[in-house]
């Protein structure tokens, strides 16, 4: 993570490109991009040191709205593209923006395997329970039996739980937030970016066009009656939950916190919890490589010089030829 | 010595179950021959199993550089039961079979007349060896194949000092202690043959050559790997698949020396996308795979074309379709590669035909990729990928790195001071030759976007019809630029007499047997030359048409069932082949078969010949 060395502090506006979005009015995606811009401004990361990588879908168009390097890739594949960027230049801030269909459906293999590697990057999943850009089919997060607007029949498939999957796959920062809680979302994205390792934020994102069950109004409702009334969306950390492993060397603490996180995620309740469920510091992919391959620590592979001034390759095969030489 | 003795032309096969050291026997044999100044071409065949499948290596030895195997076997060495059942009938009269009398009855093998069968009492010899070395029998058993190599070399009266030197080259450092043990096993083999007194009448001899220029013993996957390293490739991704992963595993073993990052991915979709993502930062990035994995890369390759990303992807062709013949040879991905990914994305396709070209094209691929800003797809095949060959050191003297149109930090800083600078860089700026200057992700003042959708010069999605035409033309233009820029001798090559009556068109490793067949055919009263195609996309229409128009008889010679190169040539030039020689048994073609097949189509005017030989 690089920081701004220019004199003028960067504001959220500085991370906004000139492009106007083509999202439907009221789409939750607006709030997410604004929060990402706000988080980057708080962290003062120079624009050119940020790469925002999208898949394909409404949400995946976010990179175009960012005044940073923007990489709009293939449906389901933003994670491997982003891993390529992050591993070739570990000094960059790499943020993936993609849909729930993109990440938990077609890209699920990459989603799982990214956890195993713990590369330092941030994955923001815009979770609207539908495939927005293809007109509202059920996504992997829509519950069994539910019937959103475009579904001809109720959903017959069950939903996956991305948060417990992420923890079990090895993600080292696992959070949920809500697109219209700008303060919480900005703060969570900021923490995710600052986290040294693979972070995921599953963001509840109303899709007013295709998800008529879980609308902004629905999320904003209070539930219960009379004195027991509470907001539907609440912050677990505000209620005292802490998912952070303070001493990763303490196996007992690790296990206790991991079980607590999974229990919290898997316990059904009427309210919807947001917050950081799981946070632990573990060696990143690059940190695991450095002892095996010290040159990688000296400089990013993308900065290694390849040729001398005359264009002659610098790689000297002298030693490696030994294995093959027979005279 | 009889007057019919053949010196330094020899074809030896060793076979046995996979996992019993067939491979290491062949490597020992080849290295010993190379140390004695001889050249080898080692053809390796194995099944898609780990232990127990039938495997063998045929080593052809010569005084001069050779590019192929021959079908007759002069000596077949067996140390178990199954291999001779398959190969014994191919032993040529005058040749010999070495076998284990405990498991093999030579009368049951259908040996040709004039083939001697030589029984080696392996168990007895190994027991003696165990006693001599004061080692348990189990520890000595694994040297059965080494003993077999000793017996084989004794048959051709080969000087054992080269075997010892070869062992020293194989067992180095911590393993050096294994040299004397293994040498004792070799000597046991020599002693057994001496005791039987059979070598004197065996009409083949391998003699050391005094002139001994520097040589390497190598397989194709390593040649490609070294070409990549030389080119400064520092990021390689892969997903395990035969025969491609040998390249990546080797790269991983030397990665620390070159500061290269080799990443094993969850699948080939990720391999392709990760390499492309890395390339956006400016690193030279690559991935390697084999047919099924290459299929999974299609969409990523299209994206790289659309975003003009330089990336190198090597496909080691094997038997197809589907998982086909996973460990066998074929050249059936040409059309798939030429058209891979939907639409008409741009890519360069190179198809080297020799080990030296594997190295050279792997190196050049990165230059092409960066000069013309598109994926370069390299077609190799299982034959050369897995063969063990004696080659000369690669010629590095002419290698120059060309990174194409980059934009420096200083240039970007200067641009950012211009009044029209809006904080973005025109990464896809229209240009005369179609190639635009490239900024890397992370470069200050170089911000732009990438999109799989059609985009503007700065990379934002834009569906404007006029922009669409200009962008499509810009990207396509780069292929014209590439055809002009890639030296002609890297595009195609004519071997043999320029104005021959018959031109045989080949690609990939099929070049080898045709190169060796060429002098034989021409000394046989035929007039033949060989045209090798090495650059498939963009297709060198003019040069190839000129050559083909001169030939009275045009013969396509390919390792697939439909003649894919012939189809591509017809599509690009309108010129059709008169005859096709095809082989798709999964086994590469030999010099023997090539000579006969070309002679047959020329003399008998058959339209299409399908070759069968080999197991
Ligand atoms: C390989 C492939 N299959 C299908 C599509 C079509 N497609 C485009 S967007 C999309 C779904 C997007 O849904 P999601 O990822 O949840 O994002 P959202 O639009 O809801 O933000 C699909 C299936 C595609 N582009 N590529
Ligand atoms: S379809 Fe839904 S997710 Fe897509 S832009 Fe419209 S509201 Fe947003």
Most extensive interface, residues per chain?
A: A-B, 65 and 80 residues
Helix content of chain B: 25-40%
Largest sheet of chain B: 8 strands, mixed
Uncertain spans of chain B? none
Instruction: Tell me the β content of chain B.
Output: 15-25%
Bound molecules: thiamine diphosphate, iron/sulfur cluster
Tell me the strand percentage band of chain A.
Answer: 15-25%
What class, by secondary structure content of chain B?
alpha/beta
The main β sheet of chain A shows up as: 8 strands, mixed
- Low-pLDDT regions of chain A: none
Coarse shape of chain A: globular
* Count of DSSP strands of chain A: 12
What is the assembly state of the chains in this entry?
Answer: heterodimer
Shape of chain B: globular
Order of secondary-structure elements of chain A = HEEHEHHEEEHEHEHEEEHEHHH
Span from first to last CA of chain B? 34 Å
Detailed description of the structure:
By secondary structure, chain A is of the alpha/beta class. Chain A is 30% helix and 17% strand. In chain A, the strands form 3 sheets. Chain A has an 8-stranded mixed sheet, with helices on both faces. In chain A, strands 5-6 form a two-stranded antiparallel ribbon. Chain A is globular. The N and C termini of chain A lie far apart (50 Å). By secondary structure, chain B is α/β, with parallel strands linked by helices. Chain B is built from 21 helices and 24 strands. In chain B, β19 (502-507), α18 and β20 form a beta-alpha-beta unit. Chain B starts with 5 loop residues before the first strand and ends with a strand. At the A-B interface, β2, α2, α4, α10 and α11 of A face α1, β9, α8, β10 and α9 of B. β2 (69-72) of chain A pairs parallel with β17 of chain B, so a sheet runs across the interface. Thiamine diphosphate binds at residues 56-59, 75, 99-102, 126, 128, 130-134, 139 of chain A.
